[in-house]
Design brief:
The chain has helices spanning about 20-25, 30-45, 80-105, 110, 120, 175-185, 190-195, 200-210, 235-245, 300-305, 320, 330-340, 355-365, 390-400; strands spanning about 50-55, 65, 70-75, 145-150, 160-165, 225, 250, 255-260, 260-265, 270-275, 275-280, 310-315, 345, 350, 370, 380-385, 405-410, 415-420, 425-435, 435-440, 440-445, 450, 470-475. By secondary structure, the protein is an alpha+beta fold. It folds into two domains: about 15-215 and about 310-345 and about 410-475, no CATH class; about 350-410, Dna Ligase, domain 1. Strand 20 (about 435-440) and strand 21 (about 440-445) form a beta hairpin. The protein is globular, with a radius of gyration of 23 Å. It comes from Aquabacterium olei.
């Protein structure tokens, strides 16, 4: 399989936007790069940038905490490519928010037969409690993370595709920010030679977006970050973002609802909360409505939400729009709501609940990637070309038992980027997660989080599956 190399057009030809970096890299001794990597690991460990890997077990039987490896070699994106990608991201996220508003109100797209009603209305992520509820500005997903990959075309050029939409509680932005700080600390001379677009203002953009989405009539809104607690795999990020925005990090027990308003317990008495950036899944947010046994949420929160007295980022029920069974229909959403052709393409997708698509998938299991529609983190999937025959046959039975729970896609030839590994510099597969903020306007910082599959030949970049991260440089010119 042929892969698009982000840095090299051919073995001897470096792409224009990498040439300055390539000359610099060629002058760096191996022992210097090794020492820089060790320094980065020491600093990340000291700061506490860890991630729980649930597939690994420690002596207690729990998931182990480990550093997310940081790769020293950045992923560089030229200005013209970013401009086009940014337009595509704005278009896509706008359409997804229109879709959510429509589904919870008029359902025009279903009535028009553009999207089948069954996978939407019978979706576990469709929250009947949200029907008819108006959210500020009609924005359901205020913070979105859109996963983008680049595949190689037959002529050797590369095409960007959207692999996945993350509209519930997308994570990873703290690693984007910390990676940039680390790059600037280790290699300040590189930033003097490159015009790299900044990302450090993301917390300011996030806070401004949250505040602009506060309930009507609130002039000085109070925003908080709601975390499940310190044992959550992304707790570092929750604490980091709260600290960077200068707002409180709270748990469910720190909040209460009275007269359909949300309050925070403080040493000075109750303080009204207007905006909650929640990093807790729907099911655990309000024990009055969802899971009765949840201790992570706030009893009565939905009542306050329905009364228009608090904004949730993101809204309940956004999961319909990022469910993998709905993903194949996003291009249709863009045309239906915006009257435009999609700028960013979907990966071709087979919907296994449809008879012909199921049969094709069964006939080509060893060639395809098959994913659970509600799955995340690289779990519950089959990567056909990397699976044994026994694994393929076992998965075949699982698929036949519940075909509606799966989609299938071609095994994409994900682009590669030079990566500093134990054996030296070698190509490794990557993706990109830009973070899109939707409020009064749609905004984002240039780039996002580049994730890298550190195992040779692996196409799974998720941190929970042993992946690492890179700094992402978008050049300003």
């Amino acid at each position: 399989m042929r892969f698009f190399d982000e840095m090299h057009a051919s073995r001897a030809d470096v792409r224009d936007h990498y040439k300055v970096y390539d000359r610099w890299l060629g002058r760096q001794p191996q022992d210097l790069m090794n020492s820089r990597r060790a320094e980065a690991e020491m600093i990340f460990r000291r700061v506490g940038i860890t991630f729980a890997v649930y597939g690994d077990k420690d002596e207690t039987g729990d998931g182990t905490e480990r550093l997310i490896p940081f790769d020293l070699i950045p992923r560089i994106i030229p200005a013209h490519e970013w401009r086009e990608m940014e337009k595509g991201l704005r278009q896509r996220v706008t359409a997804l928010n229109r879709f959510l508003e429509d589904i919870y109100h008029d359902q025009a797209i279903l009535k028009a037969g553009v999207i089948p009603a069954e996978p939407v209305l019978n979706n576990a992520q469709c929250r009947k409690e949200m029907m008819g509820l108006n959210v500020p500005g009609g924005i359901y997903s205020i913070i979105a993370g859109i996963d983008i990959v680049r595949a190689c075309n037959p002529d050797g050029s590369g095409t960007y595709y959207v692999l996945e939409d993350n509209l519930r509680v997308p994570s990873g932005v703290s690693y984007m920010l910390e990676n940039r700080k680390m790059s600037m600390r280790l290699f300040p001379e590189l930033f003097a030679e490159h015009r790299v677009a900044p990302v450090a203002h993301y917390p300011d953009l996030l806070l401004d977006t949250l505040r602009t989405m506060a309930p009507a009539g609130v002039n000085e809104p109070t925003a908080v970050v709601l975390t499940p607690g310190m044992y959550n795999s992304a707790y570092f990020e929750h604490a980091f973002l709260a600290q960077q925005m200068g707002i409180e990090l709270v748990e469910g027990q720190d909040l209460f609802v009275k007269d359909d308003f949300v309050y925070m317990r403080t040493t000075r008495g109750p303080q009204r909360v207007d905006v909650i950036y929640r990093r807790v899944d729907d099911d655990f947010m309000d024990p009055e409505v969802f899971r009765k046994d949840s201790t992570l949420g706030v009893a009565g929160l939905l009542r306050a939400y329905r009364a228009g007295n608090v904004t949730l980022a993101n809204a309940f029920g956004t999961g319909i729009a990022d469910d993998k069974s709905i993903y194949p229909y996003v291009p249709r959403m863009i045309e239906f709501y915006l009257g435009e052709k999609p700028i960013l393409q979907n990966v071709p997708t087979y919907v296994c609940r449809e008879k012909d698509d199921l049969q094709y998938t069964l006939d080509h299991l060893d060639e395809l990637v098959v994913k659970e529609v509600h799955g995340a983190g690289g779990y519950g999937m089959l990567v056909g070309p990397a699976a044994t025959q026994a694994e393929v046959e076992t998965f075949r039975q699982v698929l036949l038992a519940n075909p509606g729970n799966y989609i299938a896609q071609p095994t994409l030839s994900l682009s590669t980027c030079p990566t500093f590994v134990e054996s030296g510099i070698a190509p490794r597969h990557i993706d990109l997660r830009p973070f899109v903020l939707s409020g009064k306007e749609v905004r984002m910082v240039p780039g996002g989080l580049t994730r890298v599959a550190l195992k040779e030949g692996s196409l799974v970049v998720n941190s929970s599956q042993g992946g690492g991260t890179k700094d992402t440089w978008v050049l300003e010119s």
